[in-house]
Design the sequence.
């Protein structure tokens, strides 16, 4: 590593330990995000299985009752599930945050 003047810097004592610790924390954080995201996804799919139409606040409340997460997490995971083809919906009225659940289009596998 070099400083602003271009001189080669010696690594500080404990740098490797600090880097390993930071990488471990990042891995733990990613694991936590996956675990919580999975729980939120299950709550969203169970909600959508029982509703034809819904308001965003109803979905957020349903998810919050089952998962400890930020309110915007349900919205983000809902969009991600739609992108992955797990759920499908249409916005009926953006101002009222009214959504309609739609059937999920399944792709046929030829082989």
Sequence:
């Amino acid at each position: 590593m070099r400083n602003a003047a271009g001189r080669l810097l010696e690594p500080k004592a404990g740098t490797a330990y600090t880097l390993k610790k930071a990488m471990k924390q990042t891995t733990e954080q990613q694991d936590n995000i996956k675990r919580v995201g999975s729980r939120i996804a299950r709550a969203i799919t169970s909600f959508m299985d029982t509703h034809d139409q819904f308001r965003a606040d109803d979905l957020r409340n349903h998810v919050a009752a089952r998962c400890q997460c930020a309110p915007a997490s349900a919205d983000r995971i809902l969009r991600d599930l739609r992108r992955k083809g797990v759920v499908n919906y249409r916005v009926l009225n953006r101002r009222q945050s009214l959504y309609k659940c739609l059937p999920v289009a399944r792709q046929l596998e030829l082989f």
Q: What stands out?
A: The chain is about 55% helix and 10% strand. Residues 15-49 form the longest helix (35 residues).
